[in-house]
From TrEMBL:
This is Esterase. Residues 63-137 form the Pesticidal crystal protein Cry22Aa Ig-like domain. Keywords: Hydrolase, Signal. Residues 235-350 form the Phospholipase/carboxylesterase/thioesterase domain. Pfam families: Abhydrolase_2 (PF02230), Bact_surface_Ig-like (PF16403). It comes from the Bacteria. InterPro entries: AB_hydrolase_fold, Cry22Aa_Ig-like, Ig-like_fold, Plant_Biomass_Hydrol_Est, PLipase/COase/thioEstase. The lineage of its organism: Bacteria, Pseudomonadati, Pseudomonadota, Gammaproteobacteria, Cellvibrionales.
Length: 394
């Protein structure tokens, strides 16, 4: 660990470097197309403008799905939607007023996962909470992952999605949700206008785990990697929280098992999210980043949020973009001032540069790590599943 007499100014410099460079990726990354800069600030893309959340009143109507929430259809088969029913708080039938979106997108001749959404409002204009159905069209194995551009769903962001192979096989089962926070080069403004999500397939991103068949079919996580926006302040965190709210409605998510991991700028995002939205995550695994510990006030807030949050940090000891001292200093704060329980884990990738996340996410680093710290003794996914929001198990 770094020395206890590390000055406040050195710590502050660490954090400013992290925020200023966004945890930029090293030259070893496969870089996306460069986005040209202009002296005139460009307007925010539509997907970066935070939308107001429509509150669902306590006396709003209620929609109930007919049939299962997840439907499997063989490629080339026929899909007949079972629909939904709706009633207001007085028991009046509103089923005929339900609006259904997404049915026209279903093509049973094309393997994909399709969303159907059901909405209704009563005569007083009270809007019901939307209900969703997922229709999976496939022959033998469902699609490994889907790219969900902004506006292709009712979600507040574009994102990469992976669904468990056997999702829906047990109608009432709920699944853990893993949010993956990308690094600097993958923000909306760093991506081509005609294909924003293209950059989520470059560099350090979890899509490779699915694309290269390194994700066991038995692993139960719903995985979402949202594409975040630059220069929108705390709205960057707020949009992701909105996405999590959307996911809780759209998928059979277990709200007690929501986890987050991220690298570089995404690692910093992962550390800071629990400060803004406490009691949401069951565990986190930040990589190649430090936390928001730039001054005593920030440290106090950090400790308050992290007291009982399980944390497993990873960093390369040869990282020249965000030095490993970012992690050492943050973990020292967690252990010595926050007195976090369970005790935070830290794995140092020997000779690892900035881009270490892929080997953690694909399990290829298991059994390795600098022996002075915590070796990666297990998959981070198995480690995540040991914790729930209402109870931790060390």
């Amino acid at each position: 660990m770094i020395q206890n007499n590390l000055t406040f100014f050195a710590a502050l410099a660490f954090v400013f470097l992290l925020i200023g460079c966004g945890g930029g990726s090293s030259s070893s990354e496969n870089r996306p197309p460069v986005v040209s800069n202009s002296s005139v600030p460009a307007p925010l893309p539509r997907e970066c403008i935070l939308q107001p959340v429509v509150a669902v009143a306590t006396d709003a109507p209620l929609i109930t799905l007919n049939g299962d929430r997840v439907i499997d259809i063989p490629l080339g088969g026929t899909y007949l939607d079972a629909g939904a029913i709706a009633k207001d708080q007085n028991g009046n039938d509103l089923t005929s007023l339900i609006s259904t979106t997404g049915l026209d997108k279903i093509n049973t001749n094309q393997q994909a996962d399709y969303f159907i959404r059901y909405d209704v409002k009563d005569s007083a204009g009270r809007i019901a909470a939307s209900k969703h159905r997922i229709v999976r069209v496939f022959t033998n194995t469902p699609k490994k992952y889907s790219l969900r551009p902004f506006d292709s769903t009712s979600a507040p962001m574009g994102f990469l999605e992976h669904l468990p192979v056997y999702i829906g096989s047990e109608p009432h089962k709920q699944y853990p949700l893993l949010i993956v926070a990308h690094g600097w080069e993958h923000f909306v403004q760093q991506s081509p206008v005609n294909n924003r999500l293209l950059t989520l397939q470059y560099g350090a991103n979890i899509y490779r785990v699915f694309d290269e068949n390194r994700w066991p079919d038995s692993r139960p996580f719903i995985v979402l990697e949202p594409q975040r926006c630059l220069d929108i302040g705390d709205n960057e965190w707020h949009q992701v929280d909105q996405l999590i709210e959307w996911a809780l409605a759209a998928y059979p998510v277990d709200p007690q098992r929501i986890y987050m991991t991220g690298m570089s700028a995404g690692g910093y995002f992962t550390y800071r999210y629990p400060l803004l939205y406490p009691n949401r995550l069951a565990a986190i695994a930040p990589m190649s980043a430090g936390g928001p510990v730039e001054n005593p006030t920030a440290i106090t807030q950090f400790c308050k949020a992290m007291t009982q949050l399980p944390i497993w940090a990873f960093h390369g000891d040869a990282d020249s973009t965000v030095p490993v001292n970012h992690t050492f200093y943050t973990i020292d704060i967690l252990k010595q001032q926050c007195l976090t329980s369970p005790t935070p884990k830290v794995t140092i990738v020997s000779n690892g540069d900035h881009v270490i996340a892929n080997q953690i996410w694909d399990d290829s680093y298991i059994g390795k790590g600098d022996l002075k710290y915590d070796r990666q003794s297990e998959s981070i996914y198995d480690w995540f599943l040991r914790f729930t929001l209402d109870k931790t198990n060390e």
